[in-house]
Amino acid sequence: MNEGPTKFRWNLAILMFFISFISYMDRVNLSVATPTIMQEFGFDKINMGLMQTAFFVGYSLMQIPGGIMSEYFGHRRVLAIAAIWWSVFTSATAFCNSFTSFAIVRALFGVGEGPMAPSLGRFMYRWFNGAEKGRASSFMLSGVFFGPVVGPSITVALMMAFGWRSVFIIFGVVGVVLAALWYYLAVDSPRNSRFVNSAEADYIEEGQSQEVDKELAPWKSFLGSPQFWAIGIQYFITDYIMYVFLAWLPLYLMEAQNFSMKSMGIAASFPWAALCAVTMVSGVVSDKLVSAGVSKHKARTLFGIGGLILCCITLYLGAVATVPWMNVLWLTISLGSLGFTFNASWAACIDIGGKFVGSVSGWMNCWGNIGGIAAPTVTAWIATNYGWQAAILATAGSAVVGIIAWLVVKPDVPLVLKKSNNHEKVA
């Protein structure tokens, strides 16, 4: 009697969800605590924007190195070390007492979180069948976006009970625990896992090239590829819009829409809940379309462009809404629609990256977080000089650039094409 395949990869997908969740809780906590920190230390919006930017500088600088390291040393070690690093500096945020100390700690926190996404991209390539990439991506992204769903409420509750510093210490400890679990469970190859039988390993590796030697990505050739630039540019825009929400939604709701701290904690969770739900659903639908014979180009590109178009329209409607809860409704639809684009981005990254997905995802996420560097400070400058409505309208207008870039991504054409003589060339 043949033994049926185990399904341990989905247990790791759940662990990936929680690691992503904690990583984003660690980020959104500063955003939610912003009004309290501003009052205690006398910081203005520009100061807070620069602190957010300091994180993204460190985070972006480690994207490409993180991808290269995950390919060379394996996702297991790289992510475990990175998670311990960022958790230590998450806790260190509680002990900051000046703008300089906040900026330095948040930059080092960003350095730690930098390798996470490329390592998870590498993990998804090694641990999931080609027909499961969209669903696998949705676990990572849903964890990312579930953080801001419950983050405001949890952070506000902890702040009211124990003060804002307790939030950073508690989540730092949880991060270390998850890092230990990852190292124990998420070995670099499913065939080497004590929890995976041969049937599951065979299914995962179906149609996947098996690596013998460690190999660096052909960066010179990649940089000459329009696809390579396009997937980075579209993600710059997608992340830019998302990070405007992440950095400024709590303060925006309180200043522009007159929400109290308590009601803001509830209202700020709705857009992230929508983003989380749409991301999970779009991953399943995208994979089903590909399995049904729809080309990856059509499935990924349709979701990528459609999400940005809907985001742009509803962000505009939110900016001009005069009733606070109508504003929240449009912002919820706007951020939720980005779930289509985020899932398409990561699925397409795995599609075109292949065995070099660590490097390609590091490149894509680096671009995305250059958007993260720009979003807090640019939005703060526009809001300070021209008002919150102008800041939201400018964010909506940026979606046009991402829509154009998606036309060049071509997810059905891998960056590295196989040749019959076993040599490879870059598309």
How would you portray this structure in words?
With 427 residues, the protein is mostly helical. The protein has one domain: Up-down Bundle (Growth Hormone, Chain: A), CATH 1.20.1250.20. The protein contains 18 helices and two strands. The protein has helices spanning 8-41, 45-61, 63-73, 75-92, 99-113, 116-127, 133-162, 164-185, 198-204, 219-222, 226-255, 261-267, 269-291, 296-320, 324-353, 357-386, 388-397, 399-409; strands at residues 416-418, 424-426. It has a two-stranded antiparallel ribbon. It is globular, with a radius of gyration of 21 Å. The N and C termini lie far apart (45 Å).
Got a strand count? Answer: 2
Query: What count of structural domains?
Result: 1
Instruction: State the CATH superfamily name.
Output: MFS general substrate transporter like domains
Can you list the strand order of the major beta sheet? 1-2
Which sequence of SSEs, written as H and E, runs from N to C?
HHHHHHHHHHHHHHHHHHEE
Counted by DSSP, the helix tally is 18
Can you tell me the overall shape?
Answer: globular
Relative helix content: over 70%
Instruction: Return the average pLDDT rounded to an integer.
Output: 86
* Structural class estimated from helices and strands: mainly alpha
Radius of gyration: 21 Å
Estimate what percentage of residues fall within beta strands: under 5%
Distance separating the two termini: 45 Å
**Per CATH, what is the topology?**
Growth Hormone, Chain: A
Major β-sheet profile: 2 strands, antiparallel
- CATH class group: Mainly Alpha
Uncertain segments: none
CATH architecture call: Up-down Bundle
